[in-house]
Amino acid sequence: MSSKKKIKQINLIPLINIIFLMLIFFMLAGTITTIDPYKIKVPESIIKNDPLTPFLTIIVKKNGEIFIDTKNRKKELQKRNYLEILRARKPNEISLKIDSETPSEYFLKILKILENEKIKKVVIETNYVKQ
Q: Which of 5, 22, 44, 107 is most exposed by smallest CB count within 10 Å?
């Protein structure tokens, strides 16, 4: 005598649909932030930043330390002197990210260096604040 047992199969499609919907919801509802390794507090401004920032960024900490950062995040670029990188790349424009507590002497010194290196456009990064 052969007994026929009905094997119940679990339908996974509704579960997969729910997981994908939750994934999409969390991706859209969450914000993606980048962590600033230099911990720079940029000054506030009532004017929004231009979203098209230049490729090279000079970062000035409040104690006067100067770093250069690129969008491709190559570690060897940060180890070299920023003037060597500027002279090697000869960019037309550069982004300047300077701590709001940095003394003005450092800011003026960097601007003078950029002027001597024939940089045509300097974008200063700020935080937008609504009035």
A: 5
